[in-house]
Structure formats: C-alpha cells, structure tokens
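Proteins fold. Shown next:

***
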Amino acid sequence: MPKTSLTLQTRPKLLFSSVLSITPITLFLHALTVGLNFGATSLLNPVSLILIVLVALAVIVSSSLYLYHSNKCRKPVDHDFRVIVCQHCGYELTVPIYCGNRFCNVCSAPRLSRVRKRLNWICASLTPPRGYGFKHLTLTLRNESDLPIMLSHLVRAFRKLRQRAFWKQHVLGGAFVLEVTGRPGNWHAHLHMIIEARYIPYHKLLQLWLKVSGSRGVWIANIPKGKIVGYLTKYLSKSSVPLEITDEVARNLNGLRLFQPFGTWYAISQTYRAEPTGCPVCKHSCWFPSEILYRQLDSSSIKKRGP
C-alpha cells in the first residue's frame, strides 16, 4: 500500500490547526532534533547547513502564527459605553456598560480590579491561629458532556463538603474561583481555592470528596500569604476555552459566581467597602450620567424660552 502524505491541498484545516497548536519553542526543538538526527558531525556539512536554515525559517513562521492565534481574542470589540460627568468640575469619564458576557475583555478589567481590592482587604485582615496556614486546594470532577449539569453538580458537591464535620474541624474559611476548560461534549470544571486551614490528611480529604462528588479530583499544597491574591485572580483574568465557544460557556455560567469567599472569609468580605472612583481633576467622587445632565440643560433652556 502506498504511503499517504498530509499536504496543504488535501487537508488545509488540519494542517493549519496543527501548526497553531505547536508553540515556537516546541517546533524549534522538534526541528533541531531532526537536524541532529540527519546532520553530519561537522557543521560545515551541506545537509546540516540546510537543516539549520530550515529550523530558523520554521521558528519565524511558527512564531508569527502563534502570536496571531494567541492575540486574536484580544482585538478590540464593539461594546457599549456610558459617559459620566463629575458634578464638581464637569470632567467626563467613559465607562463600559456591563454586557453580561463573563469572557468580555472590556468588562472583565474593572471586575478583576474589584475582586483584587476585596481580596487584598481580606488578606490584610487575616491572622491565622496557631497551627493554621494557607493552602491551595483544587477540586474537580470527571469530564462531562453536559456543562450545566456538571457545574451544578460541582457547586452542590462543594456545598456538601463544607457542611461536613471534618471540613469544619480543619478549615476556617477561604475563597474559590470557578474555571471551565474543554470543548463541547468534553467539559472539565475546576474549583480553585485558597483555604485557611490546619493540617489536612490528604487521604481523608480525598475520601470525603469522593463521597460527596463521586470523583477523585483533589490537589492540595501550601501557599504563602503573599501569593494568594495573584493566584486567585489569574484564573479570573484568563480565558481557558477557545474563542469560538466563549458565548456558550458564558451562557452556562449565567447565575453562578466565578469568585466567592466562604466561612470566616465571607464575614470579613462583608466588612469591605469599596472606595468610590475619584475625579482625576478635582479628586471628588460624585458622578452622574451625562444624559441626565443634557436632559436637565435641555429642560432649563425650554423654561428660559417660555413665557
């Protein structure tokens, strides 16, 4: 049987997606391995020189494709904004109107800033009792084809876990971030969290999670206090699904919290009061929508022109 070859003419989509899935470093290492296997002992050998040139060209091409593929989801998109006006000096500030998409780059920036400030407040208020520390805990389920059912099961299982006596005896509080990866028909959901806890036997935690969730996805490790904010917010700032299915994932995440403190951390979170955004000119923080200002100006001009 003759050997079949993958060509650009016969399988263009498969070849292009395969190139995009390979990072420049990976492609360089593969090409270099081929060069070493086929090259002679001397670098002056013509075969080696040709392979070195091919490696350089492959790295350049793959770098361009990789950067394009990585940054295409960060291109500016159409979005609705509102202009608010400072009541004291009239300075106008343009702010985005929340669109409801959890993966929107425009809306996620101010949301991420709010979460980071709240976490900083919580961390500044923490003084772990003797024998307690901070741990990074990841809980997950087996891959599922139905994303809504998987998300509901994951959140419900974690709620059951927090109600168990073993959890209450070892964990004071914490905060979790919900992350979704995978593709339609093969979804994978995680709960990444930081907990304030004393030593937890891994096998005990694994048995308890298996009992409430039916899965064995448990990973736990110590984490310094200074890395808590950065660790949790990195999962809120990145998209773990391909661009073409973000709308589907966003619809299934509707009504679910991507970030949530629990236990003693929830009580601390309730004491947080966000500082209002100050005007960069006069430093006051009294804003109102520009359409109200223009409506008032129009109504006042009508009254002046009236009898």
Summary: The CA atoms of residues 39 and 47 lie 6 Å apart. The chain is about 50% helix and 20% strand.
